[in-house]
Design goal:
292 residues; Rossmann fold; Helicase, Ruva Protein, domain 3; binds S-adenosylmethionine; alpha/beta; seven-stranded mixed beta sheet
Length: 292
């Protein structure tokens, strides 16, 4: 087995060899601790039949651990300067494909079909670029890809919001937008010292596993997400107030909103942060005929 990329000494050597300078704007904080990488990969429960999708391989620190654990790895990297580096650091692995480009622009479904034919178990495993964590996750979740789940590093504050439960300060429309698709939990908190350069914020790894059965069925997903968003617009206001401000012509349609709240069994004086995902689903369905 090759020497790990993710040791401080080897990482420094690679950076020096290629004269590589970090771009803060691309969220480049590389992992320099193989133990963290082993833990991340263990969380994904890959087998030799699995596929792994990585966003942002950097110099390949996590990629090589994935290449050892999975059948096939596809990694999307936006920074062209890293392509020759990766070709070098990952030369020992013939099961890795690097896709050059912005993952937000990529046709991930087509890449999976092309690169992972016959692979049934696919996980996304990544140390995400923190400036685009949420857009990346929402894009992949909305795309309805054949992915079992996600083990991803991100800013701890975002991890807390994604995994939050009703009645907590961190709970909001992001918790609902994600937990509609997956179960979400924080797998580990990660100290700044495992990165080069060290980020300014705390980090955490979260694990998201796709639901077998969705927690709620709704008539209109985009209306459901919109109702959740508007319910948190002013966190200290009641659900009734927020819906009146957020729904089209909501002020004049107070009676219809009250009827929908009653049908869903929700006290109009409650705050959005106390509603479960199931309650938001029911509420959206009862509001739907009046507002869409
Ligand atoms: N996986 C490496 C590691 O853990 O050491 C690097 C992780 S670093 C936090 C994020 C990586 O994502 C960088 O290599 C960066 O160039 C890349 N990146 C940033 N924005 C991206 C995007 N929109 N699409 C694909 N890759 C991106």
């Amino acid at each position: 087995m090759n020497k790990d990329i993710a040791t401080p000494v080897r990482t420094q050597e690679i950076l020096k060899k290629y004269g590589f300078s970090f771009k803060k704007s691309l969220g480049q904080n590389f992992i320099i601790d193989p133990n963290i990488l082993r833990n991340i990969v263990a969380q994904a429960q890959l087998t030799s039949e699995s596929g792994a999708i990585e966003v942002g391989p950097g110099i390949g620190a996590l990629t090589e651990h994935l290449a050892r654990a999975a059948k096939k790895v596809v990694a999307f990297e936006i920074d062209q300067r890293l392509l020759p580096v990766l070709a070098d650091t990952l030369s020992a692995y013939d099961n890795v494909t690097i896709e050059h480009g912005d993952v937000l622009e990529a046709d991930v479904a087509t890449v999976i079909k092309r690169e992972m034919p016959g692979i049934e178990d696919i996980m996304v495993v990544a140390n995400l670029p923190y400036y685009v964590t949420t857009p990346i996750l929402l894009k992949l979740l909305h795309a309805d890809l054949p992915i079992r789940g996600y083990v991803v590093m991100m800013q701890k504050e975002v991890a807390d919001r994604i995994t939050a439960q009703p009645g907590t300060k961190a709970y909001g429309s992001l918790s609902i937008a994600i937990q509609y698709y997956v179960t979400a939990e924080v797998a580990m908190i990660v100290p700044k010292t495992v990165f080069m350069p060290q980020p300014n914020v705390e980090s955490a790894v979260i694990r998201l596993i796709k639901h077998d059965v969705p927690p709620v069925k709704v008539i209109d997903e985009s209306f459901f997400f919109a109702v959740a968003r508007m319910s948190f617009a002013q966190r200290r206001k009641t659900i009734l107030n927020n819906l009146q401000s957020g729904l089209p012509n909501g002020k004049a349609k107070k009676d219809q909103i009250l009827t929908a709240l009653e049908a869903a069994g929700i006290d109009p004086k409650r705050r959005g942060e106390t509603l479960s995902i199931q309650e938001f689903g029911q509420l959206a369905d009862y509001l739907h005929p009046y507002f869409v």
